[in-house]
Amino acid sequence: MNETMKIIFGLVGGLAIFIYGMNMMSECLQKAAGEKMKKILALLTKNPILGVLAGALTTAVLQSSSATTVMTIGFVSAGLMSLPQAISIILGANIGTTMTAQIIAFKITDYIYLFIFAGFLISFISKKEKVKNIGQTIFAFGLLFLGIETMGDVMKPLASSAFFVNMIGKVSHIPILGVCVGAVMTLVVQSSSATIAVLQNFAAQAGPDGVTSIIGLTGAIPILLGDNIGTTITAVLASIGQPKDARRTAFAHCVFNISGAILFLFLVKPYAALIQFISPKGNEIDVISRQIANAHTGFNLVMTLIWIPLIPLMVKIVMKLVPDGKEMGTKALENPKYLDNKLIAQPAAALQLVAKEVMYCAKLVDEMIGKLQSGNGKIDKENAGIVEEKAKILQKLYASINDYFAALYSGGVLTEEQASQSAGMQSILCDIDRIGQLTREIMETVAKQNKGKHKYSKEALKELKKAMEQIQMIYGSCIRAISGDVDMDIKELMRQKEDIMQLDEKMRKNHIARVGKGKCDSKLTIPFNDVLHNIDRIGNSCVNLVEVAKENVTMQAFFAED
Fold first, then answer.
1. In 10 A of CB 99, how many CB atoms?
2. Where are the alpha helices (DSSP H) in 231-346?
3. 285-311 average pLDDT score
4. Which site in 67, 190, 313, 432 is 20 to 30 Å from 487, CA atoms measured?
C-alpha cells in the first residue's frame, strides 16, 4: 500500500473512531445524567441569561451543539418554547460545544489505553445501570482520544510534502478560502467537533522548519470560522417541514454563526495575537491545539455577549427571513401535535413531548364527554359528528404515540427509571383511549335510538345526562391527579366511583319500573343496559387512572422541575 492510501485510510479510520467515541460518550452521558437534564432544561425562563446557561450546560452534557439545536427546534415546533427562549438556548449551545475542543487540547496521549481499559472494566463488572453508563462514558472518552491520536500519526508525513505545504500556504494567506474549507469539511462530516479536532491535530504538525505549525493560528482561525458556518446545516435540515417558528430557530443559528464569521474574518490577525497572548506560552506546535480551542471558545463567547441584548433584533431578522403567511407543513389534527422523531436520541426531552401528547389526548376525551352530556341527554347530529371525529383523531394519536414508545425502546436510549415511567404512561394512555372509545359507543347507541321508532323517555335521558355529568367530573379529577395535582384526594375519587356504581344500579331499576308502567319501550332495555355497562367500564378505567396516580406515576415526572 502506498503512502497516500495509508494516510487516507488512517485519517478516515481515525475520524470514524473519534465520531463513534463522541456519539457513544454523548449517549452514555445522557443515560447517566438523564434526570439532571430536566434540571438543566428547567433553567429555561424568560431571562435570556439563564437561557444561555441552559443551552451551554445541555450541550456540555450532550457533547453536541447540533443535538441541542435539534432538541430546541423540536420544543419550538411543539409549542413548548417561544422563539426568544429558543434563540437564547442556541446562543448557549454554541458556547457549550467548545468544551470538546478544550478537552482535546489536553495532552493525555500516554493515558489513552488506561481510559479505555478502566472504562471497559467498570462497565463489564458493574451490575448497576448508572455505574455501567459511567464506565461506558470513560471507555468512549478513551476511544475519542484514540481516534485523535490515529489522525495525528497519519498526518505527520503531510508536513514533509511540498505540494501539501504549498496548498496549505494558500489557505493560510487567503482567509475566505479557509472559511470555505472549514464549511465544506463540516458539511461532509456533519460534526463541527470532529472537524475542529482534525484542525487541532493538523495544526500541531511542524512545518518545514520543524518548529512552527504547518498552518499557524492565523491560518487555522478562518477554517474554524467555516466550521461554525457548516454546523448550521444540521439545524436547517432539522427544521424542514416544521412550523415557521421552528424554521426561524434554525435560521437564528445561521445568523449567529454567519454574522460572527463575517465580523471575525476582518479581525483574524489581531484576534490571533490576542489568543496567543492569553494562551499558554511555548513552542507553537506544542501550544497551538490549546490556542485553537481558546479561539473557538472566545469566538462564541464574544458573539453571545454581542447577541444577548440584541435577541429582539434577532427575532425581527428571522421573522423577515421566514415571514408570516400560509404555514407550510402544518400538521393535520390527526397527526401528533408534539411528537418529534428527531428527539428519539434525547429521551429526557422526548418523554416530555410524549407526556404533552398524552395530555392532549386526555383533553380530546374530556371534550367528547362534554358533547355527550349536553342537550339533556339528546344527541343531535352536530354533536354526534364532533364526537365521532374526535374519536377517530384519538385512535390515530394512540397509534402514533405507541409507535413513538416503540422507537424509544428499540433505540436503547432509555434508562431503567425512564423505561419504568414510560410503562406507567402507556398504561395511562391506554385507559384514556379506552374511555374515549367507550364514549363514542355510548354516543352511537343513544343516537341510534333517538333516530329510531322507539325513543328514550325524558326521565331516561335526564338520568343519562346526570350519569355523564358525574363521569365527566370524576374523569376531570383523574386527569388532574395524573397531571401531578398534589391537592387531589385519591380517596374522594374512589368515593365518586362508588356513586357512579350506585347510580348505575338505580338507573337499571328505574328503567324496569318505566317499562312496567308503559313509559318506556321494552325493546330499549338491551341498548339502555349497553349504555349503562359502558358507563360502568368508563368508571373502571377512571379507577385505573387513580391507581396509577397513587403509585406516583404522573405526567409531572416527565417535566422539568420549576
1. 19
2. 232-239, 244-265, 268-278, 284-307, 311-321
3. 91
4. 432
Specify whether the CB–CB gap between 84 and 311 falls below 8 A: yes
Q: How far apart are the first and last CA of the chain?
A: 61
Neighbours of 451 (CB within 10 A): 11
Amino acid code (one letter) for 461: L
521 neighbors 498 (Cβ within 8 angstroms): no
Cβ within 8 Å of residue 528, ≥6 positions away: 456, 460, 511
Residue 413 CB burial class (10 angstroms; 0-12, 13-18, ≥19): buried
User: Who has greater pLDDT, 159 or 396?
Assistant: 396
CA proximity to 295, closest of 144, 449, 131, 105: 105
Half-sphere exposure of 425 (CA within 13 A, CB side): 29
**What are the DSSP calls for 224-243, one per residue?**
HHHHHHHTHHHHHHHHTTS-
Give the length of the chain: 562
**Cα 492 vs. chain centroid, distance in angstroms?**
37
Q: Which residues pair with 206 in a beta bridge?
A: 213
Q: Shortest CA distance to 77 belongs to which of 455, 391, 423, 331?
A: 331
Angle CA(387)–CA(352)–CA(34) in degrees, nearest 5?
Answer: 155
Helix (H) or strand (E) holding 146: helix 129-155
